[in-house]
Write a structure and sequence with these properties.
By secondary structure, the chain is an alpha/beta fold. Helices cover 25% and strands 32% of the residues.
């Protein structure tokens, strides 16, 4: 049985919302103003038929849209989408009782700009495979041959990768292929159960040569402690942070787009002011440390040894940066304490999606006068803002940065002064 409804607004996860029989129903791939038939399944409604299209509805740019679970919002026109996305911050802050906020215009990365992705593959037998992304809310894979958000170099690599995997994957064998575009080529990691035999090593080295890959590695997911094994490194992959090269390790976390990275670095540098001593918490391989080190000495803290080594080695050969020191430390288990933080003018913090509640508490208890916070979760960001405000920190303008086009994910950066 279907119900005819009019979609009222977009929810925080990008689904259309309608009130039906006193219940809130979420309808994926619908737009505010759509008059549609839906089939109910609990709190979810499945779009069955569009009677009248919303004025905010446009044609999606990808043939795989609604099948592939990567994008939720290709059907929403640009202005409405940008206002909705920036509004995610406003809503999250309002829910914490914070109204007086300046939100700057959204910095959206363009199409064809995402430089890292993980493709899933499964063998179907007789030289057939499925290579792509999972369906929304499912483990079923959708075979893809294009993607409007990935950089052209990764899109062009999909077909050669598919041909190679046809010879490699047995029936039901699964594999994840992690691809990162460095400034000098693609860094490709094959993740699957099992060791690499001599024949496969030779095949992968040849595959790297033929496709001009920077590096190819293997990651045996069957091991108790999996690690990256470099099989061929034709060029040491690097990226550029504010004009400086950083050679990154396999599996390194990088900002998803160069455009988004540069928007965040620019806002961070503006916030630093005249600081001379900076601590960078959850530093990764130095997105913010390297740029900040042009102005100040920087202490970078991170729980990934390979990324810290990459940061330190790269900083050591730079001529235009001040001293960069590093510390391997799990900030969830051992946050920096007030007496350690008190030696710095500014703290930069860019925690994972879950936030870093304990580290934020120690920052509040320290004498730090300025905090530059980057967050990829408006809800944990709003929680931290509330705690910072109670401790006497005043939030500056918020810059929303959209590196995950057509999705509800959002980066946020703001400067707090005590």
């Amino acid at each position: 049985m279907t119900d005819k409804v009019t979609i009222e607004e977009l929810g925080g996860r990008g689904d259309g919302i309608v009130q039906l029989n006193g219940k809130t129903v979420f309808v994926p791939y619908s737009a505010p103003g759509d008059v549609i038939d839906i089939k109910l399944n609990g709190a979810k409604g499945r779009l069955r038929h569009i009677h009248q299209k919303s004025p905010h509805r446009i044609e999606p740019v990808c043939a795989h849209f609604t099948k592939c679970g990567g994008c939720q919002l290709q059907h929403i026109e640009e202005d409405y989408y940008k206002n909705w996305k920036a509004g995610l911050i406003k809503t999250a802050l309002k829910n914490q009782g914070i109204d007086d906020v300046e939100i700057l215009p959204l910095r959206a990365s363009p199409q064809s700009s995402r430089r890292r992705t993980s493709l899933q593959a499964i063998g179907r037998g007789e030289g057939k495979i499925v290579l792509g992304y999972a369906e929304k809310g499912s483990h079923n894979l959708v075979d893809i041959n294009m993607c409007p958000i990935l950089v052209p170099e990764i899109v062009a690599f999909i077909d050669p990768l598919r041909e190679f995997l046809k010879k490699l994957l047995k029936v039901k064998q699964k594999m994840t292929i992690q691809i990162t575009k460095g400034d000098n080529g693609l860094d490709v990691v094959f993740k699957s159960k099992g060791e690499v035999d001599l024949n496969l090593r030779m095949d992968l080295a040849e595959f790297a040569q033929v496709n001009d890959l920077a590096r190819v590695s293997w990651f045996d997911t069957g091991l108790k402690k999996p690690y990256y094994e470099t099989l061929a490194e034709r060029k040491k992959p690097y990226v550029t942070f504010d004009g400086n090269k950083v050679f990154f390790p396999e599996g390194a976390f990088l900002q998803a787009t160069v455009d988004g990275q540069n928007a965040l670095i620019s806002a961070m540098l503006k916030g630093l002011g005249e600081a001379s001593r900076v601590v960078d918490l959850f530093s990764g391989c130095g997105t913010f440390s390297i740029a900040a080190a042009k102005k100040a000495t920087v202490h970078a803290v991170e729980n990934n040894e390979e990324m810290l080594v990459a940061l330190k080695n790269s900083a050591n050969i730079m001529t235009n940066v001040k001293q960069v020191t590093t510390e391997l430390r799990d900030l969830f288990l051992r946050p920096l304490l007030p007496h350690e933080l008190n030696t710095y003018d500014v703290a930069i913090i860019d925690p994972p999606r879950a936030g870093a509640r304990h580290q934020m508490t120690e920052i509040i208890n320290s004498d730090i006068k300025k905090l530059i916070m980057i967050s990829c979760n408006p809800i944990t960001f709003a929680r931290d803002v509330e705690n910072l405000a109670a401790a006497g920190f005043k939030m500056g303008a918020v810059t929303p940065v959209d590196q995950f086009l057509y999705s509800p994910h959002l980066e946020i950066i703001s400067v707090f002064n005590r």
